[in-house]
Design goal:
Elements (H helix, E strand, L loop, with lengths): L4 H12 L5 H8 L3 H10 L18 H10 L5 H10 L6 H11 L18 E14 L2 E12 L5 E6 L4 H15 L5 E4 L6 E5 L2 E4 L1 H10 L2 E4 L9 H15 L7 H13 L6 E2 L2 E5 H8 L15 E7 L4 E4 L2 E4 L7 E7 L3 E6 L2 E7 L7 E2 L2 H8 L5 H13 L3 H10 L4 H8 L2
Parallel strand pairs: 1-4, 4-7, 12-16
Antiparallel strand pairs: 1-2, 2-3, 5-6, 8-9, 10-13, 11-12, 13-14, 14-15
Helix pairs in contact: 2-3, 13-15
Length: 420
């Protein structure tokens, strides 16, 4: 408890002038007796030693202390049960409080202050920022964050997951935003970067090794459970969470990323640089940027390549959505080549279909020409196609068609009239 100078003067006056005891002073002033003891000891008086009152726990203290020395992480609940088996008559509340005082304290660890040179290192990590609704899908909203260790310049980009393709896109986009590449990228032990680790032996993801070969940076994984090694990016994520994302309104993922880019170049870059308080982060970045490695002439290919198969219907399933293909390619293994905006479907070396990408789920993305060509081959397909089209346009179409059947009307004529 902290007290002011006026209270200290009263304690000293009551003790030396009025000859009050410590307990009397504490009672009259409404403070704990330990505060009075501290003030008197600072004035040069010896601390009053008080005899501890005997507790029902006292006979069990040797057993408890010895057990805690052998098993320092043993829970108070388990210790209480062990003490009850030995005859302890008290309740659990006082017992747990006393155990917290007796439990051995871990020696605090000291850390060295880590310094880096301009252009030497960047730190990379993901942050989870809740979810975003896209069409029928509720997707995880993940923030890819890269921080240059010297200038503290931040790159921020949001994605709907943290899979390998998004990680590679984040790396490439950060390098392009910085117009250069740091010599070392310090990464968390994420599965998109580190496949396996045994002490200092690390097996990196092949895609990460391809990326590092292309841009000539060294991937380096931080030690497990050693957050101090990548403290710059972890603090940056907290800074983003509190100073950018809190209370932020956005209409789409593209809108959110546009706001993030503006914030990184504006508000974030205007704060003071910890390495040199005379500079802002933006000014420090201008000094650091020439020390970064030059970008290669050709950017790394970050498109997703996934082998899919068209079944009996002319569609392939990719990222929880169905994309149409020409009907000649049913029952065929194909390759999806996708970026954030476009999905291309390839058979061998030929691109057989191109669609705008959807991040919803359960969507049926069609090229009318693909399905129209199939109609001409199926004499009875027209009616079924019209029904399917009605059901896609309106969720009420299926009950309406069932009502037409129940009324005894011809379904074919009704469907044709509704599609006119």
């Amino acid at each position: 408890m902290t007290i002011n100078k006026d209270m200290e003067a009263k304690i000293l006056r009551y003790h030396f002038v009025e000859k009050w005891r410590t307990g009397t002073i504490a009672t009259q002033l409404g403070i704990h007796h330990s505060v009075v003891d501290r003030v008197l000891s600072q004035a040069g008086l010896p601390k009053v030693e008080r005899t501890e009152r005997t507790s029902i726990l006292t006979p069990y203290l040797p057993f408890i202390i010895q057990t805690l020395e052998t098993y320092p992480t043993l829970t108070a609940v388990r210790l209480y049960e062990m003490a009850k088996q030995r005859g302890y008559p008290g309740g659990p509340s006082q017992f747990r409080h006393r155990i917290s005082e007796l439990r051995p304290r871990k020696q605090p660890e000291a850390y060295l202050r880590l310094k880096s040179l301009p252009g030497e290192q960047a730190q990379v990590d993901w942050g989870h920022f809740g979810h975003i609704q896209i069409g029928q899908a509720k997707r995880a909203l993940m923030a890819y964050v890269m921080v240059l260790s010297w200038s503290r310049q931040i790159f921020l980009q949001f994605y709907v997951n943290q899979q390998t393709a998004r990680f590679l896109r984040g790396q490439v986009a950060a390098f392009e935003a910085f117009n250069g590449v740091p010599k070392v990228c310090l990464l968390d032990n994420m599965k998109t970067a580190v496949l396996e680790r045994n002490g200092s032996a690390i097996r990196f993801h092949p895609a990460l090794l391809d990326l590092s070969s292309h841009y000539h940076f060294e991937p380096r994984a931080a030690a497990p459970a050693r957050g101090n090694e990548k403290g710059r990016v972890e603090r940056a994520i907290r800074y983003i969470r509190d100073n950018f994302f809190a209370g932020r309104h956005y209409s789409s993922l593209e809108d959110l990323n546009a706001q993030a880019d503006e914030w990184c170049k504006g508000t974030s870059a205007e704060r003071r640089c910890p390495e040199d308080p005379q500079l802002s982060v933006g000014e420090a970045f201008l000094q650091e940027q020439p020390s970064l490695l030059a970008l290669p002439d050709n950017p790394f290919d970050t498109r997703e390549h996934v082998v899919v198969r068209a079944q009996k219907t002319p569609y392939v399933r990719f990222d929880s959505n169905d994309y149409s293909v020409p009907h000649q390619h049913v029952q065929t293994s194909l390759t999806v080549n996708a970026c954030l905006k476009e999905v291309r479907i390839i058979n061998g070396t030929n691109v057989i279909a191109t669609h705008l990408r959807s991040f919803s789920k359960g969507e049926q993305i069609e090229n009318e020409a693909h399905v129209n060509a199939l109609w001409l081959m199926k004499t009875n397909a027209k009616q079924h196609r019209a029904q399917d089209r009605l059901c896609q346009i309106s969720s009420h179409a299926q009950p309406l068609l069932q009502h037409i059947i129940d009324r005894g009307h011809a379904l074919k004529g009704a469907v044709n009239r509704l599609n006119q």
